Structures are given as C-alpha cells and as structure tokens.
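The step that takes the researchers longest sounds almost clerical: writing a folded protein down as plain text. The outcome of that step, for a single protein, is printed below.
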Amino acid sequence: MIALSRLFSTSMLLTALRVGAAGVGFLTQIVLARLLNADELGIFYFVSSVAMIAPLVLCHGYPSLLTRFVSRYTERGKPEYVSAFLRLTQKEGIKWGVLGALVLATVGWFAPGIEDRFRAAFLFGSLTIIPMCLYRIYGGIAGAYRMFVGSYLPSLVVLPTVFSGVLFTVYLAGGSASLTMVSALQFASWACVAAVSLYIVREIYRGPAEPVYDRRVQRRWAREAWPVVVVAIFTSMLTDLAVILATPFMTLPDVAAFGLCLKVAFLVGFFVQVSHQVLLPDMGDAVARRESGSIGVKILGASLAPLALTVGGFLLSVFFGEYMLGLFGDEFRGAKYTLAILMFAQFVRAVAGPGPLLLTVKGAQGTNAMICAVSALVLIAGNAIMAPRWGAEGAALALLLTTVFWLVATAFALYRMDGVRADLASFLVRRTSVSPAE
C-alpha cells in the first residue's frame, strides 16, 4: 500500500508538472500558428516529427532498454554489466546521432525538389537530432534510476522556457518570425535540454562500477535492442510517425491542421504516456522477481487519473473544439472533428493500459516489434485510402484505426504469453466480480 501511494504521488507530481508545461505548450502552438502561415507550419511539423523519431533509430534502441537491464543486473548483483550497458548506450547514441544528423542535413540542403525557403528549416531540423539523442540517453538513465522528475524536468521546464519564452517575446513585441528562425530556436532549445539532462545524471551516467564487456552479452543487447526501436516509435512517438506518414497524402495546410490537432490532443495524451512510463522500473523489478501479481495493482493505481483526463479532453473537444481551434486562427475551425477523433484515440490508449511497455519488460521484443510493424502498415494503408479523400479528418481516422489495432493485438499477445492483462477494463471487472466475496 505504501509503494502504491509513493507511485501515485510521483505520478501526480509529474502530472502537475505537465499541467504547467501543457498550458505553455498550448499557448506556444497558438503563437506558432499566428507567426507562420499554413505551409510553413506544415513543414515545421513535418521536420520536427522527423527530428523526434530519428534519435530512436540512431540510438539503436538502447535507451529504451535501460530500465530493463539496469533492473536486471542490479537485482542479480552485476554492477559491472550495468556500467557496460550505460557506456555502450552513450557511445553508440552519440556516434550515430552525429553522423545521422550530418547526413540528413546534407541531403536536406542539396536535394532537388525542396523549395529554397524550406532548406534552412531542414538543416536546423536535422542538427536538432544531436541534442535530442543526448536527451534520450540521459533522460533514459534518469528514468532507469527512478529519477522521474529529473527525467522529465528538462523537456517539461527547460524546453518551454527557452523555446516558448523567445517566441512569446517576439509575438508580444509585434515582431515577425520566419520558418528558419523558429527551426534554429528549436535547435538551441534542445541543446539546452541536453546540457541540463547531462548535469542531472552527472554522478551516475558512467555506472556504479568498472565496466566488464562480454561480447556474447553485447551481441544479445544488440539483438534485443533493434526490435525495441519499432516499439518505441509506437509507444512514445506515434503522433510524430502519424505526421510523417500522412504528409505525402495531404496538402501542407491539411498537414498543418492535422499536426495542430495532434499537438492539442497530445497535451492530454502525454498524461497517459507519463503514467505508463513511471511504471516501467516497478514492472521491471516485478518481472525480474517473478512477482506478476503486484503488477496489476500498480497499473490500476496509475491509470485512473489519465482515464479521467482523456474522458474530459474528449468531451471538451466535442462541445468546444471549434472555439478552441479558433484560437489558433479561423482557418483551423473546420478541424474540430479531427480534434475529437484524436482525443478519442487518447482515451483508447488510457483504457488499454501499458501493454506494449509490459511486453518489452517481459523480453518479448520480437512479438512487440512485429505487432508495431504490422500496425505501421495499417497506418500507411489508412492514410493512403482516407487522407486524400478527407484530408486531416482522414488522417485522424487512420490513426484511430491503427491505435485500436495495435493495442488489441498487444493485449492478445500479452494474454497468450502468460495470461496477464494490462488493460484497465480487466482490472475494473475483476475488482467488481470479487467485491461481494470481500
């Protein structure tokens, strides 16, 4: 009961921290929509989404395994393996992050078919990958050691302080901002986030002991890490993947409307993501100790608040979506149904629980990756069919369909593995069914 209370308090603290950042983020999107035209906003969302997903690939998936292996090797009394994995994660992430950013920057600058006014945005968007890789690594280390506030503090406080602070100053002063200026500001903001993240873990990032590198174990790490790349994209970056995959099938104004609605919906959806990620270390410990019975209580305790928030967000978008979107500009009022669909997708994620993360903790990376890969094909097909016909609403429907398919397939795989269910509905039904006996 004490552990549950502590987990609930941590989740609520992060939720409270996110509430403040969510308010700033909402205002920031309003300012962006007013400073940039629809074409520029669409390009900015696309470039930003590429910069968000690229670090997952370039870091080889190692940051997503930090919680699992830190818990495992700490529990087994092998601190030398903890240090080895921490240092390998940093070495590979930094090396490939720099190389990948430079390659993408070169391609974006010299590739034919890109308008000259967009080239600088691609350049700064590509370079932003470097500090984002650093944040994924050091933020992941903080999370693995249960430094949850330190894990999210840079992105929740430092990023909006720098990025939003400058944009607000420009807007309130009556100035103008170009796409190049906004992209450069984003790069500078993430550089600050990376620096703060490194400072937070400065005493633990090298590990608790001298590392011991076992080639057999390292091959196992690499073999298990790559499937996690696909899984991490769906669990953490599904909104960015949706923008990237929808862009080829829509006009830039439609991309801007779809991306804007995603940003607004994600202000609510982030609560779901944070609540699930806070559970990772405890789920890792429970699996390592084979205490599967304690997982359900933790999932239930961390899911009630996100469920209430997603229900509220959906109802708010249904009844007041047009007025909310009107704050960004009259041209976005027509996207009210897009916003409602995307809010409902966040509700689905809250009800489904942390099933994809639990599959990763249990070591079922292959199964998890296969489900996510098929889900990506569903998303591509959905966009190809619906986005050209219905624009932003079609892209939103494709994302909702993909979300349902992904989470249902994950729940089925998890149940087939060992009979465990992570969806909130199962815990509520189970609790109701046993209450008379109590």
